[in-house]
Amino acid sequence: MQDPILYLKAALDKHPELKYSLDESSWQTDFLRFFQSQTNYNISKDSISLGASLYKGKKSYGFGIDDPTPQKIDIALAQALEIIDSLPEDPHFVDVENDLTLAPAREVVNNITAIPLATKTEILSSLAASAAEAGFELYGTFICNHQTSRLINSNGLDKCSTLSPIYLEIKAVHKDSQITVMETFGGDDFNHFDLEDFRTRLMRKIGYGANPVTDVEPGHYDVILAPRCVAEFVQYLTYGMNARALDQRSSFFEGKIDQKVLSDKLTIVDDPTDPEMINRDYGSGGHIYRPLKLIENGFFRSFICDQYYHKKTGLPKNGNTASCLIVNTGDQDLDTMIAGIERGLYVSSLHYMNFINPKETSLTGLTRDGTFLIENGKITKVVNNLRFTEKIARILDNIQVLENRAYTIPFSDNYGSFDIETVKAPHALIKKFNITSSTKTI
Amino acid sequence: MEQKIKNLISRLSAPDVDFADIRITFTDDESIYFENGNLRGYGSSMGSPAIGIRVLINGCWGFAGSKDLSDATIDRLIKTARGNAMQGSKFQKEAVSFPALDPTVAEYHHTPEINPFTMPKAEKLDFLSQLATAIKPAGKIVHSYVEAEFNRQERYYANTEGSYSYSTVFNTLPLMSVIAADSGQIQSRTWPGHMSAGRAGFELFYAQKFQENTERIIKEATDLLKAPVITDERADIIIGGGHLALQLHESVGHATEADRIFGQEISYAGKTFIKPWMLGKFQYGSEILNIYSDSTDPRGMGYHPLDDEGVPGKRVEIIKNGILMDQQTSRHIAHKLGLEPSSNMLASYGDDFPLVRMTNLCIAPGQGSLDELIAKTEYGYLLDFTKTWSIDDNRNNFQFTTEIGYKIESGRITGIVKEPTYYGLTPEFWNACDAICGEEEWEYHSTFHCGKGEPGQVMKLSHGVAPARFKNINVSVKM
């Protein structure tokens, strides 16, 4: 059978009055989920899907087909052609993507076959044995995806890309106290996974978890945010860097191009080429994905803008999607950062953040998977999980120190096709972080 | 399809297989999105297939799923599911216990009043276009949207115990929203709130009175720009149905998913503060609080004749007179807790692994109308229309902000406040409930977007509630 995307292209090319953008994706996952240091379930899933956006003048209609066949394509296309004339126009639509730049060819290893289930369980068994010596059990996921996609549009764009991300997330939970700590690995090159380094980092956190549990009062604290937390705040911040948010008048960055908005210690780039991260060739609409400076020494530099909003808002187009964020490093190691705090907190991970007002970057959320009290330069106690109510802009303006090492942190898009992306960030010392209540639980 | 799925089940019945099941779904989705009065997106995905095969071998689950239902793919899925179970059992300490159930055969087909997939497209678009035009930017309104999502799912299920079900349902999610801006500030209002979905067709737009509320949300969003914030430390609050549904969802619904007790969701969704000893003893809420899970009520999106591991739909009393009595369970977890399975195991699509999910989780009605409850409130706030929600991974500490609060003084609404925010701890909060409105105010509020599990699934589910009052709640969050 002819490739579905080419079958649909051939059919559409008989309609020169139409513009179109097509996306064919083949996706697989091998997904091990574990709890209590044993298998919860093993899942293998796959799908092939074809998406189409058709434009007739300023009228548009889209359809998606899972497991596409010529018969399904014919039916969907006939329905689209029948309906598109009757639709109202979108006056802001001008054209589909016209950036035809091809990314350099690169070899992508299929990590589903490179890291078989037997290897995963062997690694987990080894780590579980170490954790058990301290009374901890392992919970988490070990995932490998493999995805190929091809984009074709009526401007002659024809681009293929492959991703094969790895996501290992381990939460070590004490059998009795439920004290939890977390360690992760993410990327697309398993050669960067060092089992002994991973074990060392996990066991160091498990060591923190051996301290007694306490609670702290609401108030402003000096806080060391783990790289995962820094990464997550930066991810949330990029909501307002999107041209769509600007167009909706809900962007914190409205009117702030080239203005200083955050700490001068902070620089953020969206860089799809870093070898320690999950690399991407193309961004929205198939535009080439290139490094883009978003924040430079605290100054806001660029909105993230695709073809549609480029035409609508006049902002420069870049095709970035903030999927490869990198936060710059600083000049202190973690031990020195901790040693400099008289009384403060170490926050390992964040949970359930939600904007209160995106234009102000105000939000609430919680700490999770290891919150620790720092006293006289040392981690002395485990703290119940805490709620904060803050403004991201204020947090990132209150950076005192950035660590001299960055870590690659994987995140999963749990509501879509389980896309995995990475952010690279160091630990950060933040002053006056606003803790607003305690959860009274670990 | 019935014969196909039964043939597949017979292929899975092998001496080393303790249990196996198969689910197949065909899903239609259509979405329409107007932004600032213009049609910004219209798309569909029709007849999307999915199949999932789950096997229990050596006390371990293995699963394989695909969108491809061809014979060759199914052969591969069977082999992969078996391999996943056998390999997984090598990293296992305790075998999954799975007591047998009697087989059940069931069939259910829902028919909406107005089928959104077959109604005239022009009629559908005209209606939505008129709504979009009515709220498009003008004055202080700078952004608006009207959204419609229509869903139809045909579902087949069979297992090696002889259970089989075939069902068809229609679901609709309607929503409209405006953003007002002035002096660098924005405020938003939606209608009818973020729990707007329902087991229905296009008739939901009429039932939820969209046309009658366009002017209201424009005025309220605009007025909120000048409204004060709450300055009280604590206050009595009445929570309207749409938002109370989310409060219930987050602080009771997820908390009583019993897979969390055993850590099966620690890696993503989290734990729960509930411990097994609490069943039958723990004062979760005040004595007027009765909460039940009811997958037998076809008015809610959580209705099903059979769940995704062969348990017939049922009503389970989760909280009775304020006491925690039961849990939402799988067959395995129910056995570990000494409970009967509650019919809460569901997979969003055929190629998803079933998880403990809410179905129709409801608060039993009390007495009286909302107007009567307001009249009986000396001082406080009526809060509704969710803006921000957040709860910790043990489901104990929550904080919510609604789009608007209506100030109550001497039994009357006297003004509005913006971004009212309250927080609390789950048991203290539900024990502060001193009034629940009656049948006349009770209705289902539903969502398409309850996320859980890895790989992630979004579930459609419902909550039946009436507005309720909570005494002396902390409303003092300051930034």
Structure described in brief:
The complex is a heterodimer of chains A (442) and B (479). Helix content of chain A is 21%, strand content 40%.
Task: Outline the structure in words.
- The complex is a heterodimer of chains A (442) and B (479).
- Helices cover 21% and strands 40% of the residues of chain A.
- With 442 residues, chain A is an alpha+beta fold.
- Chain A folds into 2 domains: 205 residues, PmbA/TldD fold; 226 residues, no CATH class.
- In chain A, strands 1, 2, 3, 4, 5, 6 and 7 form a 7-stranded antiparallel β-sheet that branches. Chain A has a 5-stranded mixed barrel with strand order 9-14-15-17-21.
- In chain A, helix 4 runs parallel beside helix 5.
- Chain B has 479 residues and is of the alpha+beta class.
- Chain B folds into 2 domains: 214 residues, PmbA/TldD superfamily (PmbA/TldD fold, 2-Layer Sandwich); 241 residues, no CATH class.
- Chain B is built from 9 helices and 22 strands.
- In chain B, the strands form 5 sheets. In chain B, strands 1, 2, 3, 4, 5, 6 and 7 form a 7-stranded mixed β-sheet that branches. In chain B, strands 8, 15, 16, 17, 18, 19 and 22 form a 7-stranded mixed β-sheet that branches. In chain B, strands 11-10-9-14 form a 4-stranded antiparallel β-sheet.
- The longest helix of chain B is centred in the first third of the chain and has 18 residues.
- The interface between A and B is large, with 93 and 84 residues.
- Strand 2 of chain A pairs parallel with strand 3 of chain B.
